[in-house]
């Protein structure tokens, strides 16, 4: 089988990156894999066994047109049988346009719960307002065009699959559910940087609007009134960092929050915290929840992604509604005050995570099989 992936992960052009390793595995399972991705000026076209990398330089304004043009050329030149886009938005539209008037099948990956109301919603009376990209409304309209035209659709959770079926019904092919691959090996714990906290929370992820780190800060403000020993480590980078730093200062939390930036050892740091917390507005899957569970750290999370599917609220994790800092604060207090719960829930969460990963099996092989099934689509 000859496949083309349209991606925006420029790290695949780094031979030592995890993304490159993952793509090599996909290529081995597929047969011949071409990857087209936006990249820096330094990236070069190259072949790595039966993996072929094609960088393109495209401005945001002309990205879809540029990707579609190059993808169409690759389809014709290399006899590509199936084109898979990493999202149903800009990349999905580029794949749709590229496959037009060719024999290539269209396969769309849906990693984001874009039909969640929080994909476009900025907040409510209980929470800080977070400016969500206006582009998200347009992206829904793109998906409405792309998904019904796809011969195959892969989602990463039952939550996302259910939302697609509710919106599109029989107008789309039944989505397959193949979760994101997570390494079940747990790295040795690494101590958190020196800090004065007796109860250290940690959150890990991109500092972008959909992660709603603001809600964690608001929850911490509520908790710190009675529990002065609590503090928060924030691992990750993104466009929201400066705004979050200003918010921390305005709330009087500057001495209770430590920004660590991007850390390659984030999984190892998790195990040294007293609890992991996330306040995402939406998640397609929630890989960091699996990683936190494997590290046996107590988890506080909003009801997103695989919560309810892999992890049960108040059995494996403490869950809260989206955009509800008060509920998050009560969960933090629950872990501070109840040692038994703080000890028991991580054991259950780890067992649930490992059972889930076992049921997933080899996602690389399953993805290749999903592409084969798409090829067989009439």
Count of helix runs: 12
CATH top level of the largest domain is: Alpha Beta
What class do helices, strands and sheet pairing give? alpha/beta
Please list the strands of the largest sheet in the order they lie side by side: 3-4-2-1-5-6-7-8
Number of strands: 14
CATH architecture heading of the largest domain: 3-Layer(aba) Sandwich
Task: Give the proportion of residues in helices.
Answer: 25-40%
- What is the typical, i.e. mean, pLDDT? 94
Record keyword descriptors for this entry.
378 residues, Rossmann fold, eight-stranded mixed β-sheet
Structure description:
Helix 3 links the parallel strand 5 and strand 6. This protein starts with a strand and ends with a helix. The mean pLDDT is 94. It folds into two domains: 2-182 and 361-375, Glycogen Phosphorylase B (Rossmann fold, 3-Layer(aba) Sandwich), CATH 3.40.50; 199-359, 3-Layer(aba) Sandwich (Rossmann fold), CATH 3.40.50. It has twelve helices and 14 strands. Helix content is 38%, strand content 17%.
